[in-house]
Amino acid sequence: MEEWVWDGGRPSIDLLNTVRDRALDARETLRTPDDLALWLRAARLFDGDVDGDDLTAARALRTAIDALAYPADGSSPAASVEVVNTAAAEAPSDPRLALTDGRLVAVPPEPSVAAALGRIALDAIDLVTGKDLLRVCAADDCGIRFVDRSPARNRQWCSMRRCGNRTKARRHYARTGP
Question: What are 81-90's pLDDT values in tens digits?
Answer without folding.
Answer: 999 999 999 9
